[in-house]
Amino acid sequence: MSVGENEETAGGPVDRGRLDKRRAIVEAALRVFAQVGYAQASLDVIAAEAGVSKPTIYNHLGSKEKLFRHVMTETAARSNAKTLDVLTAFPTDPDQLRPGLEDLATKLVDCYCDEQSESVRRLLYAEAVRFPDLFDAVRASGPNQFTEALAGRLARLANAGHLRVEDPVRAANQFIALVYEELPGMSALGTRPLDPADVAKVVTAGVDTFLRAFGTEPADGPGKARG
């Protein structure tokens, strides 16, 4: 459950200081886990980073394992909410399909390359063996939700005759891969800053390839579909 969802109880608003302290613990824990990994992270260091006592962490979020699970699911939920908001940029005008998809891809990449999103992604893969259920839960509540939402919008464009899509979910996964999958290598898994010009080139090339595969324009035009 996210921080925002905990802000009120049956008895009224939760004390704002308690919420702020909880948020400080979660954010500090993410920084420490991202820097040294789950095994090497200590609650003493996290407490110092958050400016609280170790017993305060136990009172708010429990053991190190419970804290890690809270950090991962809560941060992923916030990142997922921002990512889903990106779909407001999804193009509805077929005449603006290419620039609309480029705008969507740029906003999506911005979300994926956010520092907290990158930290969660690195931790999720690094700790997948230790926490396989957590890996599945975060994937199901985050990336999979976005993929399904994007697939629905691609299907509507296809039904209207503006794209050629037989499998909307696969097309959505391929769109994401085309506009993003180069970037983790370019940024050393989010540990190095990306040049916006390089990101723009990846996005433009990805959208172009997507439209060549799924577009309906003539074969000799921009974004031509392959026969």
Description:
There is one protein chain. The protein is built from eleven helices and two strands. The protein has 227 residues and is mainly alpha-helical. The longest helix is centred in the first third of the chain and has 25 residues, at 16-40.
| Strand proportion | under 5%
CATH structural architecture of the largest domain: Orthogonal Bundle
Largest sheet: 2 strands, antiparallel
| Oligomerization category of the chains in this entry | single chain
Please give the radius of gyration in angstroms.
21 Å
Alpha-carbon distance between the two ends: 48 Å
> What name does CATH use for the topology of the largest domain?
Tetracycline Repressor, domain 2
Number of structural units classed as domains: 2
Strand order of the largest sheet: 1-2
Low-confidence stretches: 1-12, 219-227
Shape category: elongated
At the fourth level of CATH, the homologous superfamily of the largest domain is: Tetracycline Repressor, domain 2
Structural class label: mainly alpha
Sequence of secondary-structure elements: EEHHHHHHHHHHH
Mean pLDDT level: 88
| Name of the CATH first level of the largest domain | Mainly Alpha
Number of strand segments: 2
